[in-house]
Write a structure and sequence with these properties.
10 strands; binds zinc ion; 11 helices; 42% helix; Nucleotidyltransferase, domain 5; 2 domains; 5-stranded mixed β-sheet; alpha/beta; binds 5'-O-[(R)-(carboxyoxy)(hydroxy)phosphoryl]adenosine; single chain
Length: 351
């Protein structure tokens, strides 16, 4: 089965074609037009600006994805797209609308069914590209818009164990980067600054003295909270007249605080629910310390559990993950009539 995926929930315009058969999904093409350069000067995504860029990008991006997959856009029936999967939420409503309207138009023109995809479900299914996971599996999706720990007992069977009560982990990285003047987007900028700490020989300025909290690490649930961590960083640098000389130290401590909380809760949940696999997804899954430290924690604390992390290009927003989620929904015949397809900016992850 051939699925065209479309993703426009935030600031990446993306289209991809995947082929699914049995439990296997392979990517035939994946095209992403990033808007990072456009939003850099504002220090964050400006919804109206993002939506306008999606309008300009969506048709060239979708055509390129189809062509790279060997499908002629105007004659898709030659080498058929079987269905169109599109992100309907959660996300920025004006951005979502561009993808949804495009999917509806193509569905009408081609006479093909559409599949409504939850963006978080898309991130989860990034782990199913070229891999056949075992259930029950635990997934942490961590990005600029969401931080969610999900138990998955089978395809489409989700139990949300916990989520952030305020800022998403990526959002916290972005705000920390702003406070430290580290750059945009914040996650890679904080990670790069933190890496510098390792290359600087210890001096009195870099040694100790920087201690940030690990919010909710000891809470009895699987929820997260990152806005207090950002405020703690703000107060710490306000108190420290030398902070500008210690940016790598502050970045490293901030990153470690986020990584500690995420890993602690993943291991606790995996033990409680006897998970066979652990998966990571979302933009923050690109964080090298999170990846490496989680790998070690899984090896040391969970015997026989396999850690799955998608390729970097499928961690950040892309449409291959949307098409992959679409394939598994299509297998269960979960189609929507294009006339009934709607955006849902606050969409919940439901079964
Ligand atoms: O999944 P994504 O591309 O978009 C959303 O759905 O939000 O995630 C983007 C987020 C941003 O907040 C960015 O700062 C963060 O992922 N991010 C990182 C890293 N690379 C991207 N955070 C920490 N470390 C990284 N290396
Ligand atoms: Zn995302």
């Amino acid at each position: 089965m051939i699925i065209l995926g479309i993703e426009t929930s935030c600031d990446e315009t993306a289209a991809a074609v995947v082929r699914g058969s049995g439990d296997k999904v392979e990517v035939l093409s994946s095209v992403v037009a990033s808007q990072i350069e456009i939003h850099k000067k504002y220090g964050g995504v400006v919804p109206e600006v993002a939506a306008r860029a999606h309008v300009l990008n969506i048709l060239p991006v979708a055509s390129e994805a189809l062509e790279k997959a060997g499908i002629t856009p105007l004659a898709p029936l030659v080498r058929g797209v079987d269905a169109i999967a599109v992100t309907v939420g959660p996300g920025l409503v004006t951005s979502l609308l561009v993808g949804v309207e495009t999917a509806k138009t193509l569905a009408y023109a081609w006479g093909k069914p559409v599949i409504a995809i939850n963006h978080v479900e898309g991130h989860i299914y990034a782990n199913f590209i070229n891999v056949k996971p075992k259930f029950p599996t635990l997934i942490l999706t961590v990005s600029g818009g969401h931080t969610m720990l999900v138990l998955m007992k089978g395809h489409g069977k989700y139990k949300v164990l916990g989520e952030t009560r305020d800022d998403a982990a990526g959002e916290a990285f972005d705000k920390a980067a702003q406070l430290l003047g580290a750059g945009y987007p914040g996650g890679p900028a904080v990670a790069a600054a933190a890496k510098l700490k390792r290359s600087i020989p210890p001096t009195p300025l870099y040694q100790g003295g920087i201690n940030l909290p690990r919010p909710m690490i000891n809470s009895s649930d699987f929820d997260f909270s990152f806005s207090g961590l950002k405020t703690a960083l703000l107060y710490a640098i306000q108190r420290d007249k030398n902070w500008k000389k210690k940016i790598p130290g502050y970045a490293a401590e901030f990153q470690q605080a986020v990584v500690d909380v995420l890993i602690y809760k993943i291991i606790k949940a995996a033990l409680k629910y006897n998970c066979k696999n652990i998966m990571l997804s979302g933009g923050v899954a690109a964080n090298v310390e999170l990846r490496n430290q989680l790998k070690k924690a899984v090896e040391n604390k969970l015997s026989g559990v396999k850690l799955i992390i998608p390729e970097l290009k499928y961690c950040t927003d892309n449409a291959a993950m949307i098409a992959a989620a679409g394939y598994f929904q299509a297998r269960r015949k979960k189609f929507t009539l294009w006339q009934k397809l709607k955006t849902d900016a606050n969409k919940e992850l439901t079964n």
